[in-house]
Design goal:
The protein is an alpha+beta fold and 144 residues long. The protein is 16% helix and 40% strand. It starts with a helix and ends with a strand.
């Protein structure tokens, strides 16, 4: 048995290394014992799926979890468990780029396109996955 042949100082050093590694691995859950939640859903604007955009979950209230974000493609978004929010209350920001008729979205900001942003709230529960759908209206955004 190798453990019995090692000097006591080496055995203690190995024990502390293992304890340290278990603490670091335990910290991957956000540091408070809670696991991130896989969040998905749909984003519809005036009855039509949002073609593309971004969604952000920004912690509010007593929620000290990290802000998380993801992309919206063809009206759907998905934040996996590794990239999802911790349980708690969030302000949800949804952003879509609107291109005027005849305009082209070039990937660089210009006066031809405008950014449309909606804000909503979400209360992410203590479970492994959660679905929240957003029904938005063009007549009710914050245009920036």
């Amino acid at each position: 048995m190798l453990i019995h042949v090692l000097p006591a100082a080496v055995r203690w050093a190995c024990a502390w290394i293992l304890i340290g590694l278990s603490l670091v691995a335990g910290g991957c859950d956000g540091g408070n014992g809670l696991r991130r939640v896989s969040v998905s859903g749909t984003v519809v604007v005036d009855g039509k799926a949002m073609v593309s955009g971004a969604i952000r979950f920004l912690p509010t209230g007593n929620n000290t979890g990290p802000a998380v974000s993801g992309l919206i493609n063809d009206g759907e978004y998905h934040l996996s468990g590794e990239a999802g929010p911790l349980p708690g209350e969030y302000r949800v920001s949804i952003v879509e780029s609107v291109v005027p008729r005849g305009g082209k979205l070039t990937g660089s900001p210009s006066h031809e396109s405008q950014r449309v942003e909606w804000n909503d709230v979400a209360n992410v529960p203590h479970q492994t996955s959660y679905q929240q759908n957003f029904k938005l209206s063009v007549s009710d955004p914050s245009i920036q």
